[in-house]
Design goal:
It contains three helices and no strands. By secondary structure, it is an all-alpha fold. It has one domain.
Amino acid sequence: MQIVKFLTLGAALAGLSACGDTLGEQALIGAGAGAATAVAVDGDLATGAVVGAAGNIAYCQRYPSRC
């Protein structure tokens, strides 16, 4: 079961590298990755989605050339 959580976490983190072209896409991709990470670590889904969305937006706005 631990390997499944590890793989889910890895996939969620990899999803953050796909920033999205618009602010909405960035929020949606980040929210999905955050929620998937929350599932992997047995955290709160809503909190994971909010943190993931905020993190992805912040990253993409700070480093637009990397997205």
